[in-house]
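Morning. Coffee machine broken again, so started the prediction first thing and wrote up yesterday's gels while waiting. Chain of 264 residues, entered below exactly as on the submission form.
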Amino acid sequence: MLHAYRSAGYGPGKDVVFVQHGMLRNGDEYRDFWIPAADRHGLLIVAPTFSNDGFKGAENYNDGMVRDVKGQIAPADTWIYRVPALVAAALVEAGVMAPGRARIFGHSAGGQFLHRMVSLVGFGPFAAVAAANSGWYSLPTLDTPFPAGLAGTGLGEPGLKRLLESPLHVMAGSKDSEATADNLPSQPEAVAQGPGRLHRARNYHAVGKAMAGILGCAFNWRFTEVPGVAHDGRAMSVAAAGIWFDDRLPDVAALGTGPATVNA
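Came back before lunch.
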């Protein structure tokens, strides 16, 4: 399912923002978080939505259906990490979007989806990828099985270098740090990455930087801590929009932080 919003100022040749929802599968809400930015900047917002009925559980969304029901790596052409690129291609073919104008943002489970998408299939048609407040990460290592690492997926050293050299943007709210937060992954591999989402994001970035040093490749990831924000998909959407379209992180008042009503 696609939830979309076309601003009055949008036309082919302007930017399109894809948005990946969290575990609540609320693509309509995540689309709505981006409407103010769309109206200001003349954007089209597209939120591919994976229902829990059809893609039940983390293994069938966050983990991209990379593993089958027996836990074995499934054929790459069945991974749902390819879906956003297919939607983008369809929009280009239909004349709705110009090539090279798509960006993609994901929050919580959507952040997990996106950093794993970039790890395994690359940026594809997206000029920018921002993964925010992910619960945990597939570390950029080939000696730890997926989803804790990338071993067994068919990714080799060239693919790992491509990942580290990509401009992946990792974002985390400075207050998304509670070790007992709702819906925080708690399996041992996740806990080993840090007590809360902020710590795990810092760790992911640090491991990536260290791995780039080991492989002797460039490290082009960006890491942004958003001040005053906890696990809030709306506030993180505002932050990403500010960085992308105003070239700055909005101030705390503009983020409008309050009780986090979107937990995933």
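Strands lie at 2-6, 16-20, 44-48, 102-107, 126-132, 169-173, 222-226. Going to sketch it on the whiteboard this afternoon.
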